[in-house]
Amino acid sequence: MAGAREDGVPAPAGRDPDEAALPTERSPRTILVTLLLGLFTVNVTVTILAVSIPRISGDLGASQSTLTWVVSGPILAFGIIGPAVGKLGDLWGQRKVFLLGLAGAAVSAAASAVAWSAGSLIAFRVLAAAQGAATGPASFALIALVFPASRRVRALGWWSMVAAGGPVVGVVIGGPLVATLGWRAIFAGQVPLVLAALVVAAKVLPETPRRRVGAFDWGGAGLLALSATPLLVALNLAPGRGWSDPWVVALLVVAPLATVGFLVHEGRTPAPLLPPRYLRRRGFALPILMLGLMNAAYMGSFVLTPLLMQNVLGFDETRTGLVSTARPLAFAVTGPLAAVVVARLGERSTGVLGAVALVASMGVMATIGAGTATGVIVVGLALAGVAMGISNPAMSSTVAHSVDEADLGVAGAAQQMVVQVGVTFGIQLLQTVQQAREGAVGLEGSYAQAYLAAAVLAGLCVVVAAGVHRSTAPGSRHPDPVEGADVVDAELAGVPVPSGGLAAPQPTLSD
């Protein structure tokens, strides 16, 4: 890695924004297409069964509430395992971890095709997501390394479209595919696609330098899983058991205690899973928090929408899938154009604009009832696609700019974890609101109130986005150094710090 010391910490000198951190024989565009192919083949099936839960419930003889974990379980695993494999990518090399993730996903897909019960299907889908989780952080790190900073937002626009859009496409095409081929055939067909992506990736992807110091933080990985899992399980159990149920209360107590334990542990261990100094950087913490909140509203509402269209509007699975294409299509159009928006407005204003669009989307969806025209639904879904299409690349680019190159895998994994936990939280929260309010306001009204809850989450995104540092000046082609670099971070990176502080911000140590 150019400009890096043996221990993997970037040298203090800045880098020309037109220079890639990892020169390669293959063109960056070829590497990007290869990464997106592998990422899509893995994550498209994370949510592909969302609109077919009633059908699978009858096939396997399980309740729809239980089968919800066919969707939320893999999403949770995708995020929780992410930091671990992100760290392994920094230690072992991103190419190796990406290939291992693809291979594991192929095996788990084959197992899912022969699942014999709801429990086995959920277990195989969670295992597939845990293995496929390696593709997210590894692809994020490779893109950040092979593309110069001046072209990174556009590349991450495509990455965001596939990373977030793949599961959305799975929701859209899930109904028609299951109705036509059956859910087992979907996973059987996924196996050769993932294997093909594996072969191409093995030939195209470059290896990244391995970090020569630091051991894997098993304690941090365990505490991190213990921080998120109990909360999400409690949200799943509460509608049926009640919020005062001892198990629900115990789970809600364990989650924050484990979070505190994780933060304390990370501050003491010599090789943390997530270096605590990054959590003090606005360019790292706030964009990740915003993406988590946005995806909670975005995917929570998207899993809710097919149920609304089928249970309230009387749509069949095929019509539900066709109408739902409005969201991924809007995402597909706006995602790659995010670089243009960021160049004109800057990351902060772009994030605020996307959050406002998401609030508007949830407001439109809250008005849908039995007599609502299909066009209104399309507008509501398209607004959400536009919101995520312009916000994701801007926030992802800010995250990449805020960490050392040796920790890009960790940064991508942290972002993936918060996003996927947000997704799972949003799914469980909105379904909890809908189920809890149905008896009081009726079926149609319960969906409206669930969308209003999503609008509140989107409103929080506006507040968080307003606090994000602007790392690209409006009308500028290159990222600007961020003001207020942390002196402690500079000392950790080996940059001499005068008694009066840093004379000028360091590009690789942005706050």
UniProtKB/TrEMBL annotation:
It holds the Pfam family MFS_1. Keywords: Cell membrane, Membrane, Transmembrane, Transmembrane helix, Transport. The keyword Transmembrane helix applies. Residues 31-473 form the Major facilitator superfamily (MFS) profile domain. It is a multi-pass membrane protein. GO terms for molecular function: transmembrane transporter activity. The chain crosses the membrane at residues 31-54, 66-85, 97-116, 122-146, 158-179, 185-204, 216-235, 247-264, 284-309, 329-346, 353-386, 448-468. The keyword ATP-binding does not apply. Residues 1-23 are annotated as: Disordered. One of its GO terms (cellular component) is plasma membrane. Its main location: membrane. It is found in: Cell membrane. InterPro entries: MFS, MFS_dom, MFS_trans_sf. PANTHER family: BLR6921 PROTEIN, MAJOR FACILITATOR SUPERFAMILY MULTIDRUG TRANSPORTER MFSC. This is MFS transporter.
